[in-house]
């Protein structure tokens, strides 16, 4: 049963809240990956209960920013989980998807979708991404940039595998317990922009990102937390073609 939050908003079921807390609780990496492996079988059910909108919002934003027909574009889905982002990207015409995740259990689920041409295990922040430099037309990191997850120091590695003119689609949460990380992330994003590594295309705050798992995380007692989608374009950005 969910508990009531202020303003009458209900919290998600206790089991869902416990599993979310387990992966955001700052566990050491081997333990964190074990928790994700154990969660893989229930993950999609749980995020549906949370009304988790990040995969949909991120894919819609990337599709909107993307200038070319996306069918042949090579996209790397970092922290791909069970394939929720791939499903949304495929719906929008992206056909060449590669995925990486640190959890073998999650990758197994992603493999079962048949949406990815290539899937590899990789713990971003601890090891380089598989793939040569300037290889991808777009790179997505949806849901993995947060407190106790992927460190902000991994941003240059995301840039490395993106083609010049390619897009990076990143998301993070704006709930109280993630605000310190979000401030660090935005400072790192800005630094890279000042260095001329990329240009900001979009930063969109979204109020109903997902249901809150704790009362004190909820936006003004709505029962939801907010989040943000960022789209950046790697420099040098190719000039617009004439005609």
From TrEMBL:
Coiled-coil ranges per UniProt: none
A Pfam family the protein falls into: Methyltransf_23
CDD domains (alphabetical): AdoMet_MTases
PANTHER family: METHYLTRANSFERASE (PTHR43591), METHYLTRANSFERASE-LIKE PROTEIN 27 (PTHR43591:SF101)
Name the record gives this protein: MET27 protein
